[in-house]
Specification:
single chain, 409 residues, alpha+beta, Rossmann fold, Dna Ligase, domain 1, D-amino Acid Aminotransferase, Chain A, domain 1, 4 domains, 9-stranded antiparallel sheet, 5-stranded parallel sheet, binds adenosine monophosphate, binds glycine
């Protein structure tokens, strides 16, 4: 079967890398891809709009389109592909509202009695300020739409809340502040059945010890150390299953991968947010642990046969360390030369690329904020961390940096 993967980050590199291992995959394209993806897939540039993807898939006999990032999902790419009779992995625009609109998700949680932080949604700053004045601090102020990880402010004072309200465009959601370790839980859904795919812990702040601004994610460890089997069962039963049932009952069933961002509070798991796609760098940490054929799982999700799927996972743990360009997240410096990737991979680590390109003389350069995810598996988190950082040590890139505490210290 010919496949097309949409996206060009580390997540899409991990998906393409895993799909390339399947004997059932024929030609594999990635749009737009990146310099690392080019080693396992044919990178193509498609025009803007859903029609360009539909046309390419038709012209190249593509049997499955895998949509990596949230924006095209929220924008209805899967709807366009399905209307054209092309199989697509990912939710429809209606189901993708779980990520695209926090207000939608909060309302669904309220109806289905799903544990999540108390909240209110506001179209105007004045009403939001009145709400903050009447509720205990800290409060969490979030943009209602897609914000690429930047739309969340934890305000410890009314002045901080007010400043956040001035800065965030459009409608906002204000939430109660939850405490506890965080975990990301990934679940395939075919509309009715769900199949847990495992978990990861993301490191969202740019600096060691969870300091500095939020980022898209500076590293991941899988499975999430804090998510015990009992907490995972509770999260599936109390959060994920009722969400999937509610969407099916609304006539907008969820198909694809549902990524539940959880806070493991003293009273049990609570939903922080949903994403409707794999995480980045969580996908990198998950894919290196998957022994089964990823194509089989994606097809079972699209074709409604997840109840029969039995994926096999490698025992142990994985650690993905993100290397970012100096200046990330505020102002990453573009164009620095990266060497040593082959040496980093020589002992079994896998280096997934995000913002990379090759210049005409063959050198690899950084062209984005998050640039590499150096990923390793081992019997324990400690060994996986040691292997990942040993590989990081082989990378010769003065223009980049990473956190030193991914997977513990
Ligand atoms: P989000 O974009 O909604 O995932 O939020 C980004 C990060 O903000 C989360 O990973 C949490 O660390 C933090 N956060 C979001 N909502 C809350 C909350 N209600 N209480 C405490 N921390 C939160
Ligand atoms: N690493 C968090 C995300 O992909 O949303």
């Amino acid at each position: 079967m010919n496949l097309l993967v949409i996206g060009g980050g580390g997540r899409e590199h991990a998906l393409c890398w895993k799909l390339r291992q399947s004997a059932k995959v024929g030609r594999l394209w990635c749009a737009p891809g990146n310099a690392g993806i080019a080693a396992v897939a044919e990178c193509v540039t498609l025009g803007d709009g859903h029609a360009a993807v539909v046309d390419f898939a038709r012209a190249h006999d593509v049997g499955l389109v895998v949509v990596g990032p949230e924006a095209p999902l929220v924008g209805g790419l899967v709807d366009a592909l399905r209307s054209a009779g092309i199989r697509a992995f990912g939710p429809t625009a209606a189901a993708a509202r779980l990520e695209g609109s926090k207000g939608f998700t909060k309302a669904l949680c309220a109806r289905a009695n799903i544990p999540t932080a108390a909240f209110a949604r506001f179209g105007s700053g004045a009403a939001a300020r009145a709400y903050v004045a009447a509720h205990p601090l800290p409060v969490v102020v979030k943009a209602d739409g897609l914000a690429a990880g930047k739309g969340v402010v934890i305000a410890h004072t009314a002045a901080e809340a007010s400043a956040a309200l001035d800065e965030l465009p459009g409608p906002v959601v204000i939430e109660a502040f939850l405490t506890g370790p965080e975990a990301s839980l990934f679940v395939l859904c075919d509309g009715t059945d769900i199949l847990p795919l495992g978990s990861a812990q993301d490191y969202k702040r740019v600096g060691d010890g969870d300091t500095g601004p939020n980022t898209g994610g500076m590293g991941a460890v899988s499975p999430a150390p804090a998510l015990t089997p009992d907490l995972e069962r509770r999260a599936l039963a109390e959060i994920v299953a009722p969400t999937v049932a509610a969407l099916a009952a609304m006539g907008t069933p969820f198909t694809g991968v549902l990524f539940a961002g959880l806070m493991l509070t003293p009273t049990g798991p609570q939903l922080i947010e949903y994403n409707v796609r794999f995480g980045d760098p969580e996908a990198q940490a998950l894919m290196v642990r998957l022994d089964s054929d990823l194509l089989d799982l994606l097809l079972a999700t699209c074709d409604g046969t997840l109840a029969d799927a039995r994926p096999v996972w490698r025992a142990g743990a994985s650690v993905a360390v993100v290397m970012a360009a100096n200046g990330y997240p505020a102002a990453p410096v573009i164009g620095s030369v990266i060497a040593g990737v082959e040496a980093a991979e020589a002992n079994g680590a896998t280096v997934f690329h995000a913002g990379t390109a090759r210049v005409p003389d063959g050198a690899l350069i950084a062209i984005g904020g998050r640039v590499l995810a150096v990923t390793a598996t081992a019997a324990t988190v400690g060994e996986a961390r040691a292997a990942a950082y040993a590989a990081v040590g082989k990378i010769d890139w003065p223009g980049g940096f990473c956190r030193r505490d991914i997977g513990g210290s």
